[in-house]
Amino acid sequence: MDTKKETNYLEMAEMGKRDREEDNNRNEAEKRSKVGVDDQVEGVTAEQSGLTLDGFCTQTVLRESAREKTIFIHGKVRLNKGLRFGAHRINYSCMGGSTHEGQEAVLILEKTPFREETLGELLKTSDLKLQMRNDIYSTYHLLPHAHLNEIKMTAICPATEKHINKYLRQEIFLIQENSKDYKSITLPYIQAGSFSVQWVYNILEKKAETERIVFEDSDPETGFILLPDFKWDQKQVDDLYLIAICHQRGIKSLRDLTADHLPLLLNIQQRGQDEIQKRYGIPANQLRVYLHYQPSYYHLHVHFTALGYDAPGCGVERAHLLSDVIQNLQTDAQYYQSRTLTFTLRADDALLQKFRDAGRL
Ligand code: M7G
C-alpha cells in the first residue's frame, strides 16, 4: 500500500470536520424515534423488559443446527401490560384453540461456548450420570447448575414476514449483479422494501445500547460507534464479534463507496483494530474485518470477528475484507460502482424474483 497516500487519508480522517449533509433518512428516524427503543441492560429480567415466554406459542422451527447448537423458532408471544415492543397487537390461537393477544416473534436459541474460568466449578459441582462404559471408554450426562448452563436467546418482536424468511432454511442461488442490474433491479428493491434501520439510529442517537459502546469517534464524516454485535454474548473472546456503525447517513452499502469514503474506511479500520487490541487484547492479525454484500441493513457498518471463529456470513460469497475494499478504492475510485458483484439470494427472496423477471437468472 502507498504509505504516503495512507497517511494523507488518516490525516484527512483526523481533520475532516466538514458540514454534515442532510439525509432523507433523518426525517424517517425522527418520526420513528419513540418506537421500539429498548436499552439492553444486564441484570434486567425478561419480565421487566416486557417479554415473557410462558405464553409463547411455537408456530414453526425455521432452522436448527446440531453442529452449531442453535435453533430458530417462529411463534407468537403473549404481551405483558405496558409492553414496549411496538403497537401491532393481534389475536392468535395456540394449539388448544384458546385465543390470546400476541405478536409475531422470532426466537433464536444458542448454546454458549465453554468458558475456561468456570471450567473448574463446572467439573466440581455438576452431577455425573454414566451412559455407557466399554474398556477404557465411557460417556456421561453431565448436569451442571443453572448458572453454568446458560442459553443465549435473541428475540425479534414484532417480527415481520421478512424476518421470518431471513431465518428460514432455504435453497440459495448465486447472483452476479452488474452495475446496470444494481441501478435497475437492486436499488429500487432496497428503496422499497429493505429492513428498517431504526435500531442503528437508536445506537447512533444513544437511545439504545449506550452502555455497550466500546468506542466512539463522533466526527460526522469519518466517525463511528464500535459495539458488540448482538450475536456475541461477550463472555469469551474466542467468538468475538463487534460492529462499527458509521455516523454518516445515506451510505447504504459497498455499492455506494467511492474514494471519497477512504478517510472513513481507514479510520474504522485503524481505530477499530486499536480499540479491540486495547480492550480485548486481540491484535489486528487475529481479526477478520469485513463488510457484507448484500447486507441485511442498508446503513454502512463493518464486522470485526475473531479470526479463529467461523462467524455466520464470513464466507466468500458475502464477506468483503475491509483491507481489500480500501485497496480497490485506492486503485479505482469508482470500483464498486462499476464492478460486477457476486452474492447469494434465498429462494423466497423478492429480489431473486426481480432478477428472474429481468431475465438475469
Ligand atoms: P448485516 O450484514 O446487515 O446483516 O449485519 P446480517 O444480520 O444478515 O449479518 C448486521 C449486523 O448487525 C449483524 O451481524 C447483526 O447480528 C447485527 N445486529 C442486528 N441488529 C438488529 C442488532 C441490534 O439491535 N444490536 C446490535 N448490537 N447488533 C445488531
TrEMBL record:
Gene Ontology CC annotations of this record: nucleus; P-body
Which reaction does this enzyme catalyse, per its entry?
Answer: a 5'-end (N(7)-methyl 5'-triphosphoguanosine)-ribonucleoside in mRNA + H2O = N(7)-methyl-GMP + a 5'-end diphospho-ribonucleoside in mRNA + 2 H(+)
Its EC number(s)? 3.6.1.59
Do the record's keywords include Nucleus? yes
Top enzyme class, one word, equals hydrolase
**Keywords for this protein:** Acetylation, Cytoplasm, Hydrolase, mRNA processing, mRNA splicing, Nucleus, Phosphoprotein
Question: Where found in the cell?
Answer: Cytoplasm; Nucleus
Compositional bias, Basic and acidic residues, is annotated for: 1-37
**Source organism superkingdom:** Eukaryota
Naturally occurring in which organism (per UniProt): Polypterus senegalus
A GO molecular function term, named singly, is: RNA 7-methylguanosine cap binding
Q: Which lineage?
A: Eukaryota, Metazoa, Chordata, Craniata, Vertebrata
Q: Which Pfam families match?
A: DcpS, DcpS_C
Q: Which family does it belong to?
A: Belongs to the HIT family.
Q: Which residues bind substrate?
A: 199, 209, 229, 231, 292-303
Descriptive protein name? m7GpppX diphosphatase
Which Gene3D superfamilies does this UniProt record tie to the protein? HIT-like, Scavenger mRNA decapping enzyme, N-terminal domain
Q: Catalytic site residues?
A: H301
